Amino acid sequence: MRRKVPSLNALLVFEAAARLQSFTQAADELSLTQSAVCKQIANLEDWLGLALFARVKKRVQLSDAGRDYAEKIRRHLDKIERDTLELMAHKEGAGVLELAVIPTFATQWLIPRLAEFQQLRPDITINLSTKTSAFLFPDSLFHAAIHSGNAIWPGTSGDYLMAEDHAIPVCSPQLLQKYLSRKKHASIKDIAQMPLLHLSTRLEDWRRWFDLHQHTNDVCAVNGARYELFTMLIEAAIAGLGVALIPRYMVKNHLDSGKLQIPIDLSLPEQTGYYLVYPEENTNLPTLQAFRTWLLSQTAQVAK
Predict the structure, then answer these.
(1) Using DSSP, how many helices (H) and how many strands (E) does the chain show?
(2) Distance of alpha carbon 275 from alpha carbon 143, whole angstroms
(3) Contact 23, 30 (CB under 8 A)
(4) pLDDT in tens, 162-206
(5) Burial letters 205-232, b for 16+ CB under 10 A, else e
(6) pTM of the predicted structure, to 2 decimals
(7) Which residues make Cβ contacts (< 8 Å) with residue 293, sequence separation at least 6?
(8) What residues pair up with 163 in beta bridges, in sequence order?
């Protein structure tokens, strides 16, 4: 039975016009004339039996139905493009793994180790994209994800990789000098006087740190600027904006270079770990199996 699917060319034109909110810009992007774009949109609307755009004077605006259809079509076109690129790059035994990963974990831990995997499996390409929160695999193009939390996501399979490194206070040498003057070492009371920087998803960390080290007086541990990502938090600390609690491995290079210093070596044990998660149907995916085996061997070395 013939599929009830409109022309792929019409869908490509519609996606571009919807994304750019302009028939003229869509024509430029696709190397078509504006009249050709208008004709493709009109034919698609006739085929569907509803209006995808509202014509307002010399502008076009997506209708509610058009906006919803554009979002769905874009996901499908993205998947078709990804599958096509994978096939074009395919060699005997080769493959591509689409991996979502936490930004700072990717830059500070995973990427520096990927050269070894590339040497072991030059036939596999790992494409990395950042994700900072949970998502639904059916709505994405990812085969797997590495996330930080307390458990594997519901409805997925996965592996515990390792505990997150203890968080330590770090700040710039300039900030330390400003608040310590001639003192060589900071006290907990000194830290309480400094601007406290926070990760948006861990606003209780400083309170937990002060509680753990028996200092609860004269400090409002929730005051201070908040940052969405560890990468932003690290840069804020380097810029002298305050003192931040950061897992040690994330700032090792900055500590070695002197961009950051540890004002007081009292850490905060983290309660979360890193997990590799993936849909159950991807369990036997050859690229994922190879990456999973290598990744578990890497994290086992860290745990020793």
Answers:
(1) 12, 11
(2) 14
(3) no
(4) 888 899 999 999 999 888 877 777 888 889 889 999 999 888 899
(5) bbebbbeeeebeeebebeebeebebbbb
(6) 0.65
(7) none
(8) 273
